[in-house]
Amino acid sequence: MAGFSLRRPAARVLLILSAGALLAACDGTNAWTPTGPPGGGGPTGGGTDTHAPVVTLAKPDSNANVAVSEAVYVEARVTDDVALDSVQLRAFELRGSAVLGTDTTVARFVTKSVRLGGITPVVRDTTIKRFLEALADSSRAQRVRVVVTAWDTAGNSSSDSTLINIGGPRVVILSPVTGASFFGGTTLPIRVLAADSAQLVRSVRLTGTGAFAFDTTLTLPAPVPQVVDTVVIAIPATIAGAVVQGSEELRATVTAASGAQGVSAPVTVTIAPAQLDATPPQVSFHAHVPGHVEVDDSFSVVVSATDETRVDSVGITIYAIHPRGAVSDTFALLVRKVRAGADSANFSMSQIPLTGLDTVTLRLEVTAWATDPAGNCGAAVSPDAPQGQPCRAGPSGSRLAASVPGYPYTTLVVRGLTVARPNPGDVLADLLADSNRVYLSNFTRNQVDVLPIGALAYGTPVRVGSQPWGLALGRNRDSLYVANSGGTNISVVPLGPGTLTEAQDRRIFTQNEKLFSVTFDPATEEVGGVFSFDYSDRPQFIAQTSNGLLVYSTKPTAAAADGTVRIFDPRKTRSEIFTGYVDRHSSGVAIVVNADSAFLLTGIKRLLVCPRRRFGDATDPACIAGFPSFVADSLARMRSQPPNASGGKWDTRVDLGADVDDVGLSDTTFVAVSSDRNYVAVGEGAVTNARIPLFNAPAGGDSLVLVGDVRDLISNTAERVIGLGLNYDGSLGVARGNQAYYFNNQLRLQGVVAAGSPTGGVAMHPANAGYPGGSFRLSFVSGIDATGPYVDVIDNFNFFRVKRVYTRDPVVGAIAVAPRAAGDAGTVALRIYALTSGGILALPITAADLTP
After folding, report:
1. Residues 131, 199 within the same domain
2. Where would I find the H helices in 146-246?
């Protein structure tokens, strides 16, 4: 890593993407910026070519629907005033949460490139027509971006794009299946599934030809994304005196609200002459059993039956079986019976006796059955396939297939209970816990939601400022600080018994802060330029240190694409843009910090700095002019003076050798603080080779001190940060990238642990302290593997996984460690609360989980 530099001249272009994608996941202005042309080449028309090609995307149409697994047709006209070199066509989907720093780009179709350079005569105007084949990912999606990018031979490029949806109207006849037989004079039940998540389903038409003809349409009261329904067709015994018999071809046609249509594959059945009822009903069922469930979740089973006369009753029988090696234990028998031809039932996992602490693999054997008035009984043991197997009486009044077990569904019953978001669609940006409550910043509703430890229902929310993001407990744990990212202010909520409210008279209103970049001749110190740099002041993540400072990151905007770290000290007139992590060894550059203004005295090539006044002063100090080193020394002497009667100190300075290009941080910028508040760390997100500065808060001081070598940690990790945590005394930290990276309080890498794919936050055991010593050298890391999402318990001295606790939903945000609740089992040592894709997970951790 020798010669590695923290300077990133192109960082602002990348950061515009992150800021644009923050709350509109598919609308980042540079979300499709190409990395470079597929082919090389140079100007061919003479002179310097500075005009980019013009790309006009003709197909596909905006918001067009492409069926799952089908290719998308792309047509674009490309022109250039000199010569075209190459064209690239691609289509991708943005997934994850840009708000929480977990967004990712997923290709949905094969990317194609067309080489035009080197063709004689040169190509200046052409129309590209290509089919992009679908990739293996067959999931349906909306707002898939199709991008066509063209390069000319001088390297200039431009793009055009449109949005499509993967889906479109589709319809399938679920039952009957080809080859099924029905008798004349009875009924023909046809079960169809029609879906269109983008345009919505308006109607389904069923037609039949052959033995007899029918044409019926099911029109929905309002368009819906999906409909599953059964239409019963009466089969005549005779038509015009002739017996109805022979083949019957069935078709279904779906019409979307837009008028688009889809047609099913035909199903051919046999119509037999009418006869006496001696046939059991044909039964079909469909069960939705998630792969991961919690102990209070439910699963659904839908059953329907047909009979040549009439269905008298339908039922569902489920055995819950726990495999234990060669022996299987039946946990529970679940039965439901109704006198009808169809039923939809939800079965709660709470009917199955489970401890709630062990991860249990259950096999659910499902049998659906039906009877007719003649006493015939038919059973089905395979989903979505009508069957009429002989039935026998079972326990508790159930009926089962005579010779085969029910269809086996396997589900993993995982630990923990998830509390849904207060309102569907709410964005919860941050989470933390104290000994009594869990606090959640509700970005959508401008409030902090409160969940008592051990409860499954929220308390009264706390109204705060606009778009609350980061949360921090005060150094005395008696206040909650809320970073209101929709403004430039911080809410303060006193903590105590009863209903919580913001202390409105304590809201902190931050002022605009700037940095001034200075360039000068290192030999003569003659100043060549002074430039003002303004950054977004909107707070993002926040923490309070032991010396009372509020440290917060700021959220970039389209106009201010870099994030920063700020320090708010109530003993100073204004906040400070912190630059303590910026190297100070560059030649001929400097940064003026905490100044009201700075200028270049052009005639004499000197620097003029006007310091800001001290807290408690009534007047501004005089400006200082001179060479950069003289101004820096003069300001240093001012800062060494005793404070005034109000305790205010001078704080303007010139950081010689510091480059302003190293100040900006990539969104999302995380902030973590040790439990004793003596250390605070900052993690740079959304960029590989992220910086993780670590600072110490000196007792009684009014500043932060950088500890360790930021460059060294980058050299040893080279990762994007999506989670950050410090232990009790700041002696050890953990950053979540593709692995979990552990560093000491000198920013020296201590170890890494492979922990699956990253999804969200990390946290330390509350008693983890005194690294490399201590008794609870443990941490908690979220991720996902082939089995599913999980939280790992990691030994952070020998760096191995102690326990993997699987969860229902992946962690997508912060993790907080809380004490055990009053109703927890005696084996529970603590609780983990986490932001997941399904809501707020309360995960009990036992003493056994913490023991290697």
Report:
1. no
2. none
Number of neighbours of residue 375 by Cβ within 10 angstroms: 9
Q: Are 284 and 386 in contact (CB under 8 A)?
A: yes
Is residue 428 pLDDT above 80, yes or no?
yes
Looking at the domain assignment, is residue 137 inside a domain? Answer: yes
pTM summary value: 0.68
Per-residue DSSP letter, 734:
E
**C-beta atoms surrounding 553 within 10 Å:** 30
- pLDDT tens-digit readout, 373-398: 778 999 999 999 999 999 988 888 88
β-strand pairing of 811-819 with 828-836:
antiparallel
- Taking the CB of residue 125, how many other CB atoms lie within 10 A of it? 10
Domains held by the chain: number: 2
Q: Is residue 425 part of a domain?
A: no
Do residue 146 and residue 179 come from a single domain? no
With CA atoms as reference, report the closest residue to 790 among 806, 778, 775: 806
Would you say 742 and 777 are in contact if contact means Cβ atoms under 8 Å apart?
no
Q: How far apart are CA 746 and CA 713, in angstroms?
A: 9
Which residue type, as a one-letter code, is found at position 119? I
Contacts of residue 776, defined as CB under 8 A and 6 or more positions apart, other chains included, come to: 765, 766, 767, 768, 769, 850
Two tokens at 141?
């999606």
Question: Is 7 domain-assigned?
Answer: no
Neighbours of 234 (CB within 10 A): 11
CA distance 219 to 194: 12
What's the CATH code of the domain at 162? 2.60.40.10
pLDDT greater than 80 at residue 138: no
CB 591 within 8 A of CB 580: no
Last-in-domain residue among 413, 441, 462: 413
Is residue 16 a part of any domain in this protein? no
Does 207 lie in the same domain as 71? Answer: no
Of all helices (H) and strands (E), which one includes residue 196?
none
Structure tokens at 347: 């079965």
User: How far apart (Å, rounded) are the C-alpha atoms in residues 174 and 154?
Assistant: 57
Is residue 331 located within the same domain as residue 379?
A: yes
Residues 6+ apart with CB under 8 A from 119: none
Residue 56's domain comprises 32-166
In the chain, the N- to C-terminal Cα span, in Å, equals 36
Pair 96, 199 in one domain: no
Quick one: pLDDT at residue 37? 54
CA–CA distance, 665 with 469 (Å, rounded to integer):
17
| H or E element, residue 278 | none
φ/ψ bin of 708: left (φ > 0), alpha (ψ from -120 to 50), beta (otherwise):
left
Is 398 found in the same domain as 354?
A: yes
Tens of pLDDT, residues 298-353: 999 999 999 978 899 999 999 999 877 666 677 889 999 999 999 999 999 989 88
Single out the residue of 514, 555, 559, 551 nearest to residue 538, CA to CA. 555
| Average pLDDT across the chain, whole number | 88
pLDDT tens profile 239-277? 988 989 999 999 998 898 888 877 777 899 999 987 766
Q: Specify the 3-state DSSP secondary structure of 146.
A: strand
Is the pLDDT at 31 greater than 60? The verdict is: no
Q: Please check whether residues 361 and 292 belong to one and the same domain.
A: yes
Q: Are residues 258 and 361 in the same domain?
A: yes
Q: Of 413, 447, 471, which residue constitutes the final position of a domain?
A: 413
